[in-house]
């Protein structure tokens, strides 16, 4: 422990912290004269510093005792850093090719030191806004989600192991409650934090608050989110939590991690791809109408689910006689029954994915925290037009998710 009590670091005190922390000072060859430190925390919650020296580099992420984008009027536990470090380590062991390595964690300082994802890595959301194609995106994200979700579930683990880890992550209650509020509550009621592209979407926001069927469906999803400890989920797996190059995909920022419904992770990612799709018309210009790029996003969306389904069920088939206690081999003891069980599980997971994805879309349009995909569209009326199309599709998806049998059907339901 470098410092004996918590205090927010600035660039000057961070150097002192690095000097006092061997694993970090060794990373930069104990050479502090040429260190370049840049604060890049453009998120809602934390300080993030990039530290680059002649001998090496790393990222320092420090949690604050409040929500950074709002201020001290909205307190928030610093303990989220503990759960983020823990999730990075667990997911990193299961999928090291898509999770940055953790070098150091300091619980007192609520601080994580981890691999710096050097340029040309950029946030996926920014790449999608810029119209960049990533040929391995569906391949990589399906690998990450299938490995982390399958191998932390009862399909692979014993109930004893599972309950031990569920109990550990139950401590991340404040961030779970934040999710409950901003996704499953605020958009459906009058809330001081809600905002939207006014006046264009005033009636649309009101319609969400008055839609009884929508409220019944969101209540069911909230119940699953709160009560179903299915796997160790990232908890905030949107396109702003993924860094990419043409051939690298790295998942970051799992501070919302806990044992929850698998579909929440898969849905969050797919829902954000849909948001990127609907935002494209707002980024089109006379040189590029973005039509081919929109088609690419939909191919990536289909590919993500289809590859996830293929890989997840392959892991299941491989370990069907293993230690997992969800479906004991002595009971599910013939191929026909095993297939029935697997098909039902994956169908339910698919419908959960669509529901949670739709809920994530709705909150990004009429809730507290919006997405740069839309926010970077300068023309208010154009932005509102894109957002309305996304909102209408999300409402359809949330209400009618059970009628879809494949991701291709979902994509076909998007109005031309």
Helix proportion of residues, in percent? Answer: 40-55%
- Number of alpha- plus pi-helical segments: 15
CATH homologous superfamily of the largest domain, by name?
Aminoglycoside phosphotransferase (APH), C-terminal lobe
User: Judging from the principal axes of the Cα atoms, what is the shape?
Assistant: globular
Protein name: S-methyl-5-thioribose kinase
Pfam family, one: APH
Subunit structure: Homodimer.
EC number: 2.7.1.100
Summarize the structure.
About 50% of the residues lie in helices and about 10% in strands. The chain is globular, with a radius of gyration of 22 Å. The protein is of the alpha+beta class and about 425 residues long.
